[in-house]
Design a protein that fits this description.
single chain; 311 residues; alpha/beta; 2-enoyl-CoA Hydratase, Chain A, domain 1; 4-stranded mixed β-sheet; 12 helices; binds ligand LOHRUJSQ; Enoyl-CoA_hydra/iso; isomerase activity; ClpP/crotonase-like_dom_sf; Enoyl-CoA delta isomerase 1, mitochondrial; Enoyl-CoA_hyd/isom_CS
Length: 311
């Protein structure tokens, strides 16, 4: 794994390279496996394969074909460049493994699913760094939103901004029914703006009106509110979250893969293609925006506010 990481990091970072996600993902790929094949119960219980790098723990149940990607980057699972690189490598491994047909994303950090993009990656860095970071953010979204596998977010903690985007990019969202956990695209509260593909993903889940209001106000919705507006599909007690996620994936996998994958592609292709076609322009937009002095000040103040809240 360690030997592969720098290569992939370079591939994500180099503007001249074919982006990884220009390869067909949810479309144009052979179906993984016929559905409904009976599986021996003993396999379901025994055959588990785990691999881990620094920030993500991956466990594949070979009996069911369901993997779990556990985010474990303390203190708050912020999406740093290193994290995003590891995330994409892990997901690519699963995508290339024909025995894996579904993935659950969840957190190994109590009370936090992901705190979103690592704000320190967006403060006082070089243009080259911003380009590399933003390409990695795009890559994560392209890979999850365009995945051929069934993807479920088991949201076991708060999930602002980029963390919410990860959940929104899945096929299904189940959240722990703890009213203290919140989720939403709160970028406006930081004085920044969610890019068009964050917005498109959000609109596709909750509809235009709800998305517009929530985005303008930078809302973080409590778990019950998130259910009410359709941002998550269901709430379950935290201890039942993983079992429920696996049950949902099994249900989705009971359908023929090719039909499900082509339908997913039909629903998502337009939005995915829009970013793929404008990837470099989107990176340049990010750089021009984030290097503005007023934006840097806003981010600085926000980080200070987080620190004060703590003290
Ligand atoms: C044209 C393009 C425009 C640009 C578009 C950019 C799109 C941006 C998307 C984003 O995702 S921006 C990030 C938004 N995230 C947040 O607003 C979350 C902020 N964090 C919190 O609300 C809380 O930390 C928490 C996640 C609810 C956890 O609370 P808790 O009380 O458990 O921990 P804290 O003491 O607050 O934090 C611990 C530690 O972690 C640091 N930290 C928290 N979040 C981030 C983060 N996103 N990035 C970097 N660091 C973060 C926090 O400052 C603390 O640090 P220390 O004080 O311990 O050093």
């Amino acid at each position: 794994m360690a030997a592969v990481a720098p290569t992939l990091a370079r591939r994500i970072a180099r503007p001249g390279m074919l982006p990884l996600c220009s390869r067909p993902q949810a479309w144009g790929r052979a179906a993984r496996q016929s559905p409904g094949l009976p599986r021996a119960p003993s396999l379901l219980l025994t055959q588990r394969r785990a691999f881990s790098n620094n920030k993500i723990l991956v466990e594949l149940d070979e009996g069911s074909g369901i993997a779990t990607m556990k985010l474990k980057s303390p203190p708050v699972n912020s999406l740093s460049l290193d994290f995003l690189t590891e995330f994409c490598i892990s997901l690519e491994k699963l995508e290339n493994n024909r025995g894996c047909r579904g993935v659950i994303f969840t957190s190994a950090i109590p009370k936090i699913f992901s705190s979103g993009l690592d704000i320190t990656e967006m403060c006082r860095k070089s243009t080259e760094h911003y380009a590399e970071f933003w390409r990695a953010v795009q890559e994560m979204w392209l890979r999850v939103y365009g995945s051929n596998m069934v993807t479920v977010a088991a949201i076991n903690g708060s999930s602002p901004a980029g963390g919410c985007l990860l959940a929104l990019s899945c096929d299904y969202r189940i959240m722990a029914e703890n009213p203290k956990f919140s989720i939403g695209l709160n970028e406006a509260q930081l004085g920044i703006v969610a890019p068009f593909w964050f917005k498109d993903t959000f609109v596709n889940v909750v509809g235009h009106r709800v998305a517009e209001r929530s985005l303008q106000l930078g809302c973080l919705h409590s778990a019950p509110e998130a259910l009410r507006i359709g941002l998550v599909d269901e709430l379950v007690p935290e201890e039942k979250l993983q079992d429920k996620a696996a049950a949902v994936i099994a249900q989705w996998l009971a359908l023929p893969d090719h039909a499900r994958q082509l339908t997913k592609s039909m629903m998502r292709k337009l939005v995915l293609d829009r970013l793929v076609a404008h990837r470099e322009e989107d990176i340049q937009n990010f750089i021009s925006f984030i290097t503005k002095e007023s934006i840097q000040k806003s981010l600085h103040m926000y980080m200070e506010m987080l620190k004060k809240k703590k003290g």
